[in-house]
């Protein structure tokens, strides 16, 4: 594997570990341990860490070491307006471009998400929640927009495990709201879909306001 390929491999592996909360916020990350675990030298590990520092997932604390980033609820609340703007544009373009086959794919992702929530598998549900929004952005057929949506979804996926506490009531509400979003997209009714997303994000704002 080439060096650039190694860096990408390590980057994806480490980012997945962070998003899956295998490293808790504030936990020390050791270059040498990662290199040994992944079977690579420390150079691609260091390069991947530097990239994740730039993206805000890792903090480099002088004279202390490398740590999984601690993203606060206040920081997340400030990101919600950006998320709403991005997802609104993605929905608008998705409603124009989505095909019958893509509608079936979106339905399948939704049902997997809903089943995970019904089974109280909240980590799994969170992954499929992100996948719904990533898929909508992908169908929008705008690579830059999809990249921005992916980035912000990654941040919320990383923090969801420790900043948002699910309950049965919240899970049921999320299932209903996502179903309405998808039905509106399938009807190509962008105004309704965007309004539901706005309410969904307002619900998230409430969750982030709770102690």
Automatic annotation (TrEMBL):
The keyword DNA-binding applies. It holds the Pfam family GntR. CDD domains: WHTH_GntR. InterPro entries: GntR_C, TF_FadR/GntR_C, Tscrpt_reg_HTH_GntR, WH-like_DNA-bd_sf, WH_DNA-bd_sf. Residues 4-71 form the HTH gntR-type domain. Keywords: DNA-binding, Transcription, Transcription regulation. One of its GO terms (molecular function) is DNA binding. It comes from the Bacteria. This is DNA-binding transcriptional regulator, GntR family. It comes from Proteiniclasticum ruminis. The lineage of its organism: Bacteria, Bacillati, Bacillota, Clostridia, Eubacteriales.
């Amino acid at each position: 594997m080439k060096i650039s390929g190694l860096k990408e491999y390590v980057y994806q592996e480490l980012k997945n570990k962070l998003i899956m909360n295998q490293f808790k916020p504030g936990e020390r990350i050791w270059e040498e341990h990662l290199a040994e675990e992944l079977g690579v030298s420390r150079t691609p590990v260091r390069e991947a860490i530097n990239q994740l520092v730039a993206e805000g997932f890792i903090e480099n604390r002088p004279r202390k070491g490398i740590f999984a980033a601690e993203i606060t609820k206040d920081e997340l609340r400030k990101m919600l307006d950006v998320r709403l703007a991005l997802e609104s544009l993605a929905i608008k373009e998705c409603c124009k471009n989505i095909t019958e086959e893509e509608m079936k794919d979106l339905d399948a992702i939704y049902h997997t998400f809903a089943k995970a929530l019904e089974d109280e598998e909240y980590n799994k549900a969170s992954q499929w929640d992100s996948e719904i929004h990533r898929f909508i952005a992908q169908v929008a057929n705008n690579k830059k927009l999809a990249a921005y949506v992916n980035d912000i979804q990654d941040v919320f996926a990383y923090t969801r495990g420790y900043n948002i506490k699910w309950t049965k009531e919240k899970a049921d509400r999320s299932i209903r709201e996502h179903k309405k979003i998808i039905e509106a997209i399938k009807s190509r009714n962008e105004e309704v879909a965007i309004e539901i997303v706005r309410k969904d994000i307002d619900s998230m704002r409430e969750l982030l306001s709770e102690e």
